[in-house]
Amino acid sequence: MMMPENGHRAHGFSSAFFLDSDEILRELDLEGDETFMDAGCGDGHNAIKVLEDYNHSGTVYAVDVYDASIEDMETYKKENNVENLINIEADITEGIPGVEDASVDVVLMVNVFHGFKASRKIDEAICELARIIKPNGKIAIMDYKAWDVPNGPPTPVRSSPEEMEEFFAKHNLKKVYLNEEIGEDIPEGKSHYLIMFQKK
Ligand SMILES: C[S@@+](CC[C@H](N)C(=O)[O-])C[C@H]1O[C@@H](n2cnc3c(N)ncnc32)[C@H](O)[C@@H]1O
Fold first, then answer.
1. Average model confidence (pLDDT) for the chain?
2. Substitution site in 38, 65, 109, 126 for ligand 1 pocket (most atoms within 8 Å of beta carbon)
3. How much of the chain exceeds pLDDT 90, in percent?
4. What are the strands of the beta sheet with 104-110, ordered from one edge?
5. What predicted TM-score, i.e. pTM, was given to this entire model?
């Protein structure tokens, strides 16, 4: 495991090494007082950036199934006295305890979704996201394009934006935004896409 720059442990490869957080967070048009969730936060660098650089005063949830990531986020919270950060150790496909129905304005999920395809838990994951998101809230998923290229997850677990639309439509969530020109520069083009969903 490569140790992320912020020293926090991550179960998987932190995107801090190859994706520009600001490029991602700018897509979200945060106003600064939303209830925001970094779902599958890993080392938490995106949640921390929202708190620190975007002067976020709303609630920020950092959620991950990996206990060490959440322990490190708890240490960060205590050391920096960040009252509006809530760290939750949870498997998103089994439900996120302590998060009320329709209570989150913005969910961001970077390089996590392909894992649900691998574990055949896509519906369980989307069902939980649909439960927690507010009626006008946004679910932003950033993941690798469905290309057969060496960097990133194996091709069979990648999903195209069109497939994503189908997965989310089953849960009454509609695509409201798609950016296919985002991520790392690789020989084939931009490595990622960012797709956003809202309740129908
Ligand atoms: C490749 S890392 C990406 C981490 C971070 N989002 C980033 O961009 O650096 C995937 C993260 O998702 C978490 N994860 C995978 N499946 C999960 C699940 N079912 N529930 C919660 N977290 C999960 C992993 O523990 C890991 O921290």
1. 96
2. 65
3. 92
4. 85-89, 60-64, 36-39, 104-110, 133-144, 189-199, 173-186
5. 0.97
